[in-house]
Structure formats: C-alpha cells, structure tokens
Amino acid sequence: MTTAIAPVCFAIDSERVAEALQAIAAQLGSADGEVTLDFSSVTRIDSSALRALDVVARTADEKSIKIMLRGVNLDIYRVLKLATLARRFSLVN
Amino acid sequence: MPENLVPLSEERIAYLEGLVSQARMAAAVFSQCTQEDVDRIVKPMVLAGLENAQYLARLAVEETRIGVLEDKALKNMVATEFVYNYVRNKRTVGVIAEYPERGLIELAEPIGVIFSLTPITNPTSTVLFKCIMAIKTRNAVIFSPHPSSWRCCSEAVRIMYETAVKQGAPEGVFTCLESHTLQDNAYLMHHKDVGLIDATGGPGAVKAAYSSGKPALGVGPGNTPVYLEKTADLDMAVVDIITSKTFDNGTICASEQTVVIDDEIYDRVLKKFADLGTHICNAKETALLGRTVIDPATGFMQPMAVGQKAVDIARFAGISVKPNTKLLIAPIKGVGREFPLSVEKLFPVLAVYRAMSAEEALKICVDVNRAGGLGHTAVVFSKNEAIIRKFGEVINAGRIIVNSPGSIGALGGVYNDMVPTFSFGCGTGGGNSTTDNINVYHYLNIKRMARRTPAHMWFRVPNQIYFNMNAVENLRNCPSRSTVIISNPALEQIGHVDVVRRSLPPHTQVRVSIIPDAEPDIKIIAQGVETLNFYKADQIIALGGGSVIDAAKIMKLKYESPEADLEELAAPFLDIRKRVVQYPTEKVNHSRLIAISTTSGTGSEVTPFAVMTNKERGIKVTLADYSLTPDVAIVDPQFVMSMPKGLTADTGIDCLTHALEAGVSIYASAFTDSNAMQAIRLVFKYLPEAYENPGDEEARTMMHNAACIAGIAFSNASVGVNHALAHAFGARFHVAHGRANALMLPHVIAYNASVPTKFMPSPNTRAYVAHKKYAVIADLLGLGGHTVEEKVTKLVRATEQLLDRLGVPRSIADLGISKEEFERAMPDLTKNAFDDPSWRSNPRMPLISELAELYWSAYRGRSAAGDEPPVASRPVKEEVCV
Lengths: 93, 882
Fold this sequence. Notes:
The complex is a heterodimer.
Chain A: E1 8-9, H1 14-27, E2 34-38, H2 47-63, E3 66-70, H3 74-82, E4 90-92
Parallel strand pairs in A: 1-2, 2-3, 3-4
Chain B: H1 10-30, H2 35-51, H3 53-64, H4 69-87, E1 94-99, E2 104-110, E3 113-118, H5 123-136, E4 140-145, H6 150-166, E5 174-176, H7 182-189, E6 196-200, H8 203-211, E7 216-219, E8 224-228, H9 234-246, E9 256-262, H10 263-275, E10 278-280, H11 283-293, H12 310-317, E11 327-331, E12 349-355, H13 358-370, E13 375-381, H14 385-394, E14 397-402, H15 406-411, E15 444-450, E16 464-467, E17 482-487, H16 489-493, H17 496-503, E18 509-514, H18 522-534, E19 539-544, H19 546-560, H20 566-569, E20 592-597, E21 609-614, E22 619-624, E23 632-635, H21 645-664, H22 670-692, H23 697-717, H24 721-733, H25 737-752, H26 770-780, H27 788-805, H28 819-835, H29 848-860
Parallel strand pairs in B: 3-4, 3-6, 4-5, 6-7, 8-9, 8-13, 9-12, 10-11, 11-12, 13-14, 16-23, 17-18, 17-19, 19-20, 20-23
Antiparallel strand pairs in B: 1-2, 2-15, 21-22
Helix pairs in contact in B: 2-4, 2-5, 2-6, 3-4, 3-6, 4-5, 5-6, 11-12, 18-19, 21-22, 21-23, 21-25, 22-23, 24-25, 24-28, 25-27, 25-29, 26-27, 28-29
C-alpha cells in the first residue's frame, strides 16, 4: 500500500477545507493505494467542502484509491451521514 | 413512478438527481446551524419579501391573469410579516421546549429535503411563506410551481434564495424546477432522499402527493359554507363577506362559497349586499351563470373563471351588471349537481340560500361542507352562542371562523389568533393528515426526550389504630347515634359482640347484624345495606376476620353510594392511580367504619381491599380503593385468644405472605419495607408459639400486631403473584385463603428469586432486587448463608419448616385433589390468576405458562426436611443484578 497524500490536516475554516479538498482531488490522479485525510481539526463544514468531498470520493472510486477520514468529530460525521457521503469513505479514529 | 407516465429521459433524470443531490447537501450543511444562525437569516428574507411584495404581485398577476395586484401584494406582506411575527421567537433548532415538571424535552430535527408544489392562485405568497418556514427549520426545498405561475414563483424563490445565502444559508437550499412535467413531479415525489412533500394546490396535486407513499402535507380545495344567522350584526357580516369573497378575486380557497341566510333577514341582507356593489342574480341569470362558470361534465368550476373580476364573469355569462359590480350573488334552492353554483367557486360569485329555520340552515351548511369542503373552512355570523357552538359541532372544518371574513380569517393572525399560514390542513375529510394551519412545526420532526419519572408513592393508613390488650375500650371515644355491629354467629356466641357493645359510649343505639362466617357474596352485602339504611347508621363496627370486615367495607360503600356498581368497580386495572373505573365520591349517607379484627392474618382492618366471592362464576372479586380503608382499626388480642389452631396457622401464614410479597413488590418503599420486615420477624418468632401455646398472651399479641403491620405494608405496596395464585385456587377448590397462600409460598419465593423471563415494567425500581431483599430477610431472621443465593435458599427452607411446624399440608395433592381434576382446572386457574390484579405489583411478571408451572410445583409439593428446596428456574446470580 502506498500512501501518496497522508495525512492532510485541515483547518477549522470550512472554506479552507474546501480548497484543500479540491487540491486533493486534483492530486488523486497521481496517487494509488490509500489516502488519509485528517479531519480532527474540522468542526464545521460548508456546501463547497461537501461538494469537494463528493468529487474526491468519485475520483477515488475511478482510481480505485481508498480514502480514509481520520478524526471526524460527531457533528461532521452526522453531516456526512445526512449528505449520504459517509459510506463512501473509511472512517478511522 | 406511476406506470401510466412516460419514462423520463436519462438527461432529465440526471437533472432531477442533481437537484436532489444539491438539496441533500444543503440540508446536511444546514443541520449545523444554530437557532441564532437561522434567525439571522430569516429576518432579511422577510424584509426582502416585504420590499418585493408589490413587484412579485405584479409579476403574478401579469403571468397568471388571476387575481388583484393590490390584494396579491397584501398577501405577500401577510406571508412575510405576519408569518415572521409568529415564528420570530419560536425555537426551531435544538431544544425547542422543556417541561421540567413532566421530565420532557422536545428537540427539533429537520426533515432534510422538502419537495413543494405551489398553486396558481396564490403563487408568490405561498413561495415566500414556505421559504421562511424552510429556513426557520433548516430544511432545503425543491419548488415545483404550477406551470402557469413558474416565472413569478421562480423569481420569488430567487429573491429568497439570494437573500438567504447572503446571510449564511447553505448553497442549494432552494431550487426551482424548470418547466416541469407530471413525470418530473412523480419522480421527485418518489425520490428516496425527499423527506416530505408539501403540496398546496388542486386535488390532482394533493392526491399525487398522498399517493406517493411519502409523508405529505396535501392541502387542497374547500367549499366554505357561511351561516348568516338572524342575530348577527348584519352590516358587519355583509362587509366581511364582500371583503373576503372579493379579496384577490376570491382565489383563497377558504373564501365564502354559499351563504345560508335566515328567512327573517334574507331580504334585508340581500339589499345590503346590493347597496354595496353586489349584483343579485335573478333565476335566469343564476342559471346562465351556473352554465358558464361550472363545467357541466365535471361539476367543478371552469378554470377560465378563477380569479377573474365579477364584471368579467358577468360578461362571459351574458349578464348585464353595473360597471363597478364587485360580486355576483346567485340564489340557489339546494346543494348538489342540480345546483351547480353550490360548489367551490374561486372567483367573486357567491351562492345564497334562504333558510326557514336554524335547523334547515345548519343542514344546508352541512351539505355545502360535505360537497367538497370537508375539513377546510366554515364561517358563522351570529350573536347566539348556542348557534355558534352547534355550528362548530356539526360542521367538519379545520377552521371555523366566527363573525369574521372566511379567507382572511383562515389565513390567521389578522382577524383572530390562529397561526398565520398559506396552507390549510383539511384533516381526514380532505384526505389530509392534519387540520392545522400548516406552520413551522409541520416542517420539523419533533423529538421528545422523556426522562424517567418515578411515580408518586404514598403511605396511607386508617386515621386511628388502637392496639394491645383491651384496645377495644377506645370505642368510648367514638360517639354515634346509631351503630350497627356486623359480626358472625360464632363471635356472637362466645360473647365478643357483647364486649364490643359494652365498650361503646352509653346511650348509643346499637343493632347487631350477624352474617355467615364466609366470604361475602352479593346477597349478604345487599341485606347488610338494608340494615344500615333501616337504622340510618352513622357508625359501622365490623367485628370478625377478613370476611366480616370485607363485607362491612362493601356494605359501607353501597350504603353511602347506592349507585356504586360492584361488578364495574371490580374491573381490572394495572395502576390504581390510572384505573378506568373510579370509585364514587358523592355520598348519600355518611358513616364511620371501625374494624376490629378477630383473626391475626388478613390485616383487613387497615387495608383498602375487600374480597367478594362470586359463587356463580367460581371466582373471587377483589375490590381495591383507599375509600374502602376503615376509619378506625382496633387490634385487640383478647379477640384472638380463643382462635383455633388451624385458623391460627392459616391466618398467620396469610400475614407472612402479605409481608413477604409487600417486601419484594415493585411498589415497596422505605415506608413499607420497615413494616414488612418487622411483620416477617414477628411471624417467624411468635407464630409457632401462638400455634402451639394458644394461651400465650405475648405471642397472640405480637401475631395480632404483626397481621396489622403486614396489612399496613401491603396496603401501600400491594401483594404479588402468590395472592393471584391463591385467589384462583382457593375459589376453585374452596380452600381457605391462608392455606392456599401457604401451599404456594415456598415456590413463589424461589420463583421471584430467580432470573425473570419477563421483568415487570416499573419506574420505581432501578434494578431487579427481589432476591437481594429475600437475602436481607434471611439476615433479619438470622438464617445464615454467605451469598444471596444461599440466603434465599435458607429463607425458602425456613418458610417450609415453619409450614411444617404449623401442620400445613405439603402439597395440593395432599388436599385430596386428583391430578386429573387439577389438570382439568388448570386453564381456568391460570386464566383467573392472570386476571387477578394482585400480581401487577409482583417483581417478576408471570407468564401464563409460569403460573401453570407454579401451580404444578405446589401440586407436587414442597420438599421434605433434608431435600433441596424448590427452585423454579435459574437463581439470580448477584453479579447480574446491578
């Protein structure tokens, strides 16, 4: 297993989360194996970030890359469940 | 999707999926917002709606060619300002209500994605209203406007959306379908990610919403009847009706459709209408109008008439009216297809009916209500409160508007204090799930967090208890004009009745009523009540065992409340505080009941219970209510000194059973435990002495006290399954109550000490503790043992030894009952035991099969000395009971 981009630590600012995720999506093309995104500092998420996560998940599916979200707090976990995105990632503590 | 619709193209599905996905993401993001966040967003939206009220009204009129610009502007303002006034201080996020005294908290859970249909009649106001509700509740909405109002609705959505997003609402929170079809609607109505359909519109839209299988708010057509009753303020009524029916050219579905007018005021009312710019049609014009505005094929209004001016409608129909005519009134003679104008007319045409009586008027209103208006709105103008109430009773409408305009009244917040809305729930009559004015709470899942609330407990005993030798002398403190002593032949014969008589204050009129020494049946009760009535008793003294005292309790009940239905009062109940059948509180006679017990077992002198035997049905009926508790109890051992040995044993074990069952009852408390434990200790110490040495005054006194103390315990903690079994068994096989209890007792202790198949629901108990309480009892008795299990075993054994010492038969078989006979009786025994209220407080809920097992255990009998004691099932291990 190769971890091409891991872990990426996001700040709590949701706009920066979206930007970071968009960058991740762009880099996924060159990655293989597993990627871990560190969500432990993320306390709130906005629409752009959710959309970016959707893109990340789709791209990862296409490239057969496993995306793991680390340290997702309960509130963000609930948002991911409501957006039906949680099942598309592996969530790790 | 319904099969009769053409399938959607892949491109269209992708478009619709995109909308849903966007809304789903928005709803997910929105779920993070706080109350302050949403309130901060809502207010600017409301202001934007107000600023654009006229603009949106103009767009709506231009696009739909329906209604009145000025009125639509007003509707937009009501939809924003009035709705905001209602929701501004409402909590819709997190905890929205707290009821500390009930241990309840309500929390809001957003629905997520709402699919919303909006009507052509109130297009922009409905959109503004729904946008405010959605933001206030953190939901995302996909709008599907009526095709003929798409432009104005999408503009209203745009204004609301841009304002909301600017204030922090998530992107995609509102979207509006572009040029949609029925297939689009059907696809979205069935989409798994759509949480709710809010369909405001015609019957087709509402039916489609409800047929989708999704939760839906479907708000459809009405047919508002108006009763203009002769006492009404006619000037006000006429102005209100004109105001309402012409508002936005009658497009609000709550507007008046048929006015039923009392004969006495009919002509005056029509003149007032005419004076204010209404054209009153003659018969020919009414017929012309009916043919023009109502489709003869369907019986419904013609769409081309909806929201048009009165003068234009008159012109379509070929009726000549004055240029400023604002309303057309068409007299009709009935309701139904022969009278086309009796249906809903969303334009300024009003049917009127002349009623010759209030009865006829109300019947016509019912007819109109049922001709397409069920559950919607109705109006009454009257000063007669009885008429208003009657109207409310006979009309099925979610909104019954009194002395005010129907349409604006139903909207709420203007003429009354109803919740402001643009969607009217029509209840089941209208195929809807609610009759409410739809509001923010319908856009929420309200979660109720219910904390454990221990039931209130009690400790109730007679006002006075006198005890120890010669306590009967306290009767001197009980003045009475007419006292009836109820006793049995044996007690009279041995002179106990005379002792009581002599103890009463001088000059008391005393009569003695002797009843058989057996559990009372209804005939004995009736005779006793006759005696009480004949002598107008103000004091009843029950001198005897449980049967006599129980009989006296029931006689007193019937004497004071002759209407009391004993059969009904014996109805089963689960919780005495919530019982269906209440005991009477109104009394025609008043009397004091003094109970003097002559056995040491039942505790009846202090209990709120009375047992009757229904000989015909072969069962015992247990009455239970604190009103049955004697006022005074006298526990005087002189009356038990001559008690026979067998009776001493049986009643003593009855007392022990009371105490043991009260001790482990789910209603046990610190108050009852102290009594139960003390009674158990006294029984184990003094019952053998009292049995073997009947003349032992101390033993007799202590056992007499023990019975009373155990009575106090089980009066407040109740008994358990042992009594349920014993009642059914005793009634079937005519076995004395105490003996029946004794035969079950060791088996029931073992049963209650083992792991329950079913726990008894009880807010008062935090864990299963029956086995531990038995262990405490074993310790109290000094039985030894190290573990709970050992102590329970020793208690069972000690009980068996006590029974042996008292000469109680070891088994039911020992009573001479054959196995076949017992087997035949088993279905009735278990049924009656299960119906018996006694077990409702047992710590372990008995299954009917377990009742049978217990009966069979008792049939086989308890162990002989040296054998293993009975164990009904696996004993509770201490570690599994927290």
